[in-house]
Amino acid sequence: MSLGCKNTRRPRTGPSSSLGLILAALLLLVGSVATASSAPPAAGIASAHPAATRAGHEILADGGNAFDAAVAVSAALAVAEPYGSGLGGGGFWLLHRAADGHEVMLDGRERAPLAATRDMYLDAQGDPVPGLSIAGPLAAGIPGTPAALVHLAERYGRLPLARSLAPAIALARDGVEVDEQYTRLTGFRLEALRAASGSSPFLDAGEPPAPGWMLRQPALARTLERLAHEGRAGFYAGAVARALVDGVREAGGIWSAEDLAAYRVVEREPVRGRAGELSFTAAALPSSGGIVLAQILNVLADDPLTDLDQASRDHLLIEAMRRAYRDRAAHLGDPDQVAVPVARLLSPDYAAGLRAGIHPERATPSDLLPGVSDPARGSDTTHFSVIDREGNRVAATMSLNYPFGSGFVAPGTGVLLNDEMDDFSIRPGVPNVYGLVGNEANAIAPGKRMLSSMTPTFLDDGRRVAILGTPGGSRIITMVLLATLEFMRGGDAKALVALPRFHHQYLPDRVQFEPGAWSESRAAALAARGHEVQRLERTWGDMQAVIWDRMGDRVEAASDPRGGGLAEVR
Ligand code: GLY
């Protein structure tokens, strides 16, 4: 892909001036190598909540590394932003260890309970029962976040787990002031919160609290303390595990003690690729994020994007999105349970074939692409990015799925359970709540991990490194794609997170764009090529980005202006 790299050709010159130029170039090269910093001059953290960003910096100041800070940020987000993630959910932690360049993805994704069945959300007629995979304990997969935090601390951290969890424990015990976003989302999930939890800790006498209300979670503080002092046994065995299983079963769920005891974090090779001078590292299956991102970049590989007029560029991006999301729906699922043709999907030849099918002037109706007959999904979630002064990095995206997950808190635990089961294909041919379609590869099976869109990502163009990601369900991947293209154009962290967004996901067959993102004429130019164009009422995403500029010896961090996060470099 050509993204308008600076023209490095020099004017024609004679032999002696050529020699001079070569010498000058060598001097420049030596100079620039000498000035490229080998470690960041400061640490940077960007997260969706100020208390979480501060918790991470507190741990760094106490001698922790980026992995300890990631434990602190994850746990603080679980307390302060309960609509986005939590101990009752899961996520993916993408790690880069500076000392040896080791990169790995911690897969802390939820699993289907062992008693789960393929048709568990269908009625006798085979139709989805409304709400069953969205609210209440039957919607909850077995959580992975507590196991991932223990793994992160024990394998990669420098401080004891109890130290890194301390800020979150204090937040849960002493309380955190809620903001407008919290008030809006409790209103949005009010029915689930009331129905599933009796007296929900997230409501003020059963009502959405006003901004400024103190959210206190003493039961969650006690569960975090057990995790801090007993490690994984503090959650997956003993009193907490018993309370989780009893609470779930009494309320109609199907968890067992064996489900919790059997949960394991998996270390996976991330998806890696190149686009011009850029190398990227992103989430692997069971997230679709890295594969879909890589596929889109592969399809665009030979196109001079910055030389194209706006309409042709938008059209090409949308057609690449359409094709990659179709493949997501057709092929992707838990790699431990289904055979996914990853190598074929990521091969340049395959991408060239997809590119050849794109008409330069006309939209390809999605129903003309080979069909898919099944659903998959995604939604509210959270992301944070960290770099420490040694250059260790973490990009982590975590989720409960829908805002406030299932709404169900197992009595006595303070643990809000996810509704991640809704990320499976509930039934062939039925789009999910986000309109995504999926396939057999993502059908429900005991112990299986549901397909995700979460896309924690590292970008590196040799001069700068970016750590980024965002919540936003099915739109996560296209947000990361647009930010990647902006990074390749030289955009800074603020530009990456603020970028206006548009999205296509194969089905429904329409291009969505944020209010204010496109002019009337830009939308009309796409409509003239046969695209259905839809301006949404609300913006989407809450991207968090940290950039280490090696040549400029600078670290910058930015939180999405759409959210209430905090980015700090110290
Ligand atoms: N539940 C959001 C996702 O995993 O994509």
- Ligands, ions, cofactors: glycine
Q: Which stretches are low in confidence, meaning pLDDT under 50 for 5 or more residues running?
A: 2-21, 30-34, 373-379
Q: How many individual domains? A: 2
The whole-angstrom Rg is: 23 Å
The biggest beta sheet reads: 7 strands, antiparallel
Mean of pLDDT: 91
State the helicity in percent bands: 25-40%
Q: What share of residues are in beta strands?
A: 5-15%
Strand order of the largest sheet: 6-3-2-10-9-1-18
Count the helices. How many?
18
Broad structural category: alpha+beta
Number of strands: 18
Based on CA inertia axes, which overall geometry fits? globular
Determine the N-to-C terminus distance: 35 Å
Walk me through this protein's architecture.
The two termini are about 35 Å apart. The strands form 4 sheets. Strands 6-3-2-10-9-1-18 form a 7-stranded antiparallel sheet, covered by helices on one side. A 6-stranded antiparallel sheet has the order 7-8-11-12-16-17. Helix 3 packs antiparallel against helix 4, helix 5 runs antiparallel to helix 8 and helix 12 packs across helix 15. About 55% of the residues are buried. It folds into 2 domains: about 240 residues, no CATH class; about 220 residues, Glutamine Phosphoribosylpyrophosphate, subunit 1, domain 1. It has 18 helices and 18 strands. Strand 14, helix 18 and strand 15 form a beta-alpha-beta unit. The chain is of the alpha+beta class. Bound molecules: glycine (GLY). The site of glycine (GLY) has 11 residues, from loops.
